[in-house]
Structure formats: structure tokens, C-alpha cells
Specification:
By secondary structure, the chain is mostly helical. The chain has a single domain, classed as Four Helix Bundle (Hemerythrin (Met), subunit A) (Up-down Bundle). Helix content is 73%, strand content 0%. It contains five helices and no strands.
Length: 113
């Protein structure tokens, strides 16, 4: 789905952090360190069709991606969040799997900071 988007865009991260490279690195590190928790929650909520909590978790992750320069993960989180908000239930499994893949891609590319 979004594999054409960058996993990490350092220029965007710095811009999103108001030009502060140190802050951008800190925010990115926080996100990377939280990925296992997000992945665990999202996997369980998708499996259990717990769309209320999945919306909350996905919304938080989506918000975190807005300040960390992770366009592929941000797009995947946004797609799932918008599908839940729009009650488009036909492709939740596909969107959940795609979000999990993007979380894993980021984890693989950037182990804990």
C-alpha cells in the first residue's frame, strides 16, 4: 500500500519539530521505543474487533507520526483511523495488517534509540 513512502524522513522530522534537530531526534526515539506497545495493542484490538479501543490507539499513533517524520507509518495509521471513523468495515483486516507491517518496517530499520 504505502511502501513507496519513506520509512523515515529526517528533513520532515526536523521541520515538524520547529527546526530543532535535537528535539526531532528525541521525539523519533520516543516513538521507536513505543512501537512494541503500539504493535501489541493494535494486534489484539484488530484480532478482537475492538474498534472503539483500536480507534483510540490508532489515533494516538497517528498523532505521534505527525511530529516524527515517518510518512509510511503515518499514512497507514491515518488510513485505518479514517476507515474506523467512517465505519468502513470491509477492509479492517487489510488495513490492520498494513499498519502492523509498517510498524515492523520502522522497528526493523530503526531498533530502539
Amino acid at each position: 500500500m504505502n511502501n513507496e513512502l519513506d520509512i523515515f524522513d529526517s528533513e520532515a522530522a526536523i521541520k515538524q519539530a520547529g527546526g530543532d534537530a535535537e528535539l526531532a531526534d528525541e521525539l523519533f526515539g520516543m516513538l521507536v521505543n513505543e512501537l512494541p506497545t503500539y504493535k501489541e495493542k493494535i494486534a489484539l484490538q484488530c484480532k478482537e474487533n475492538d474498534y472503539t479501543n483500536l480507534l483510540e490507539t490508532t489515533h494516538k499513533l497517528n498523532g505521534a507520526t505527525r511530529y516524527t517524520g515517518v510518512p509510511a507509518l503515518g499514512a497507514a495509521a491515518n488510513q485505518l483511523e479514517q476507515a474506523i471513523r467512517g465505519d468502513i468495515i470491509t477492509n479492517y483486516d487489510e488495513l490492520c495488517n498494513h499498519l502492523m507491517d509498517e510498524i515492523q518496517r520502522l522497528k526493523d530499520a530503526y531498533p530502539k534509540k
